[in-house]
Structures are given as C-alpha cells and as structure tokens.
Fold this protein.
Amino acid sequence: MTDGDRPVAVVTGGSRGIGRAAVLRLAADGFDVAFCYLSRPERAEAVAAEARRAGARVLARKTDVSVAGQAEELVSETEAELGPIGAVVANAGVVRDRPLAGMADDEWDTVLRTNLDGTYHICRAAARSLMRHDSGTIVTISSVAGIYGNVGQSNYAASKAGIIGFTKSVAKELGRFGVRVNCVAPGMITTDMTDELSEEKRKEQIRRIPLRRPGTPDEVAELVSFLISRRSAYITGQVLGIDGGFSL
Ligand code: NDP
C-alpha cells in the first residue's frame, strides 16, 4: 500500500496500555493512525515510532478528550493530515477510586468527564466523517464494572455504564449510514491502571477469574481489530466481554 490508500483510525489514549496495543495492532492491520495522549509525550512518541516502523502514517497529539474543542481539533487535524476517518477507538479512561461516602466532587467529575464525556466528544466529532465512509466503525471501551458495578468505583462504573447506553443508541442511529458501533467490556487487564491495585486486591481478583490470570492489552487489541474489520460486518450495538470468564 502507498500513502493515502490506507484507511484512517483515531484512537484516544494511545500512549499506554490498551490504547497503545490498539494503535500498534491497527498499524499492523494496514491503518494510518492518529492517537492522543494527555500527559506523557515521551510514551506517545515511542508508540508513534513503533507504529511508523509497521508502515503507518501516524499523528500523535496531546488532547484532553474531556474538552470538546480539543477532541474536535484532533479529528480535524487527523482529516487534514491523514484523510477521512474510517474508525474510532474511544479508549481514553481514568480511575479515581473512593467509597461513595468519601467521594470528592473532582474525583466524580474527572472520571465522568474523561470516560463518558470523552467518548461522546470524540464520537460526535468524528460522526460526519464516519457517515461519509462506506463502512465506518466505532469501538468504545467500557468495563465489567459498567455492567456489574464494583466497590469503590461508583464514579467509574457510572461512566462505563453510560458508555454502554451511548454505544447502543449510536449504533441504532448510525446503522443506516453503514456505521457499526460496538463496545468492549474488559475485565482485569495488565496495564498501568491495574498496577495501582494492591497486591492483596490483585490476588483476590485473579482468584475470581476462571482463567486464573489477567488479560493482556494485546488480547483486547485483537478484539478491537476484529470489531473494526469486515470480519465483524454484521455485528453492531453489542457489548463484548473480554474478561477470562470473570462475569460468569
Ligand atoms: P492506562 O492508564 O494504561 O492508559 C490510559 C490512557 O488514556 C493513556 O494513554 C493516557 O494518556 C490516556 N488519557 C487519560 N486521560 C486522558 C484524557 N483526559 N484525554 C486523553 N487521553 C487521556 O489505561 P488502560 O490501558 O488500562 O485502560 C484503557 C481503557 O480501558 C480505559 O477506558 C479503561 O477504563 C478501560 N479498562 C481497563 C481495564 C484494565 O484492567 N486495565 C479494565 C476495563 C476497562 P497519558 O499516557 O498521557 O496519561
């Protein structure tokens, strides 16, 4: 493939963890990729360099997805530099765990604004581009916490449950334009986010997973790749768990 005939994907939060794995997987799948990060340019540059080695044109941009205007700028820069957008992975997310009785407003707001508003902002900004595409796709990232809830995560679970309702609504809305919208709900995946868990909590969670191990970012990226590709051409509006059986 030459420059310009590769499809273009946008990944939010691509500098680390699941987003990083998605960027690299999509680059290997033949996409040019734009991705954003919030605070770690050196990590983003390393991911961009790796994706370029896989043959992709890459745009790595500092963007706070909780701010609508910044998500819009990411989309317009992507279109200007890489071309029309065919796929969006709304991945950027944060945790600020705290029992409800002690939850601070800024802990609630940061999680809801980043996870839920951030998903809305990037999807709204890219919607027109996707609708013009003949087979646009969106993959949102929820969590098992958004389906089943989790102690100390009322803010996070609310944001992730919101993403599920958002995904299903947008799938109904955009289906007639050929745009498919699906949601991935990971269980415990080894990333910086789960490194924040205490060793005791980590062991307890692993005991509850039938496969007796956390998942890897690459395993989630494999599912994202499937949902973006024509291999899933008749799947839309679905929430796909990837949790080693945790939710059984
Ligand atoms: P990480 O903490 O490893 O990475 C988070 C990424 O999001 C980083 O690239 C970070 O950028 C970026 N980011 C954070 N805030 C913003 C923001 N406001 N605007 C733009 N980018 C931002 O997370 P994971 O890879 O573990 O998680 C990825 C997604 O998967 C999240 O939505 C998370 O909720 C979800 N998930 C994760 C699970 C897990 O076990 N790991 C389980 C279930 C769901 P920077 O590097 O600059 O900080």
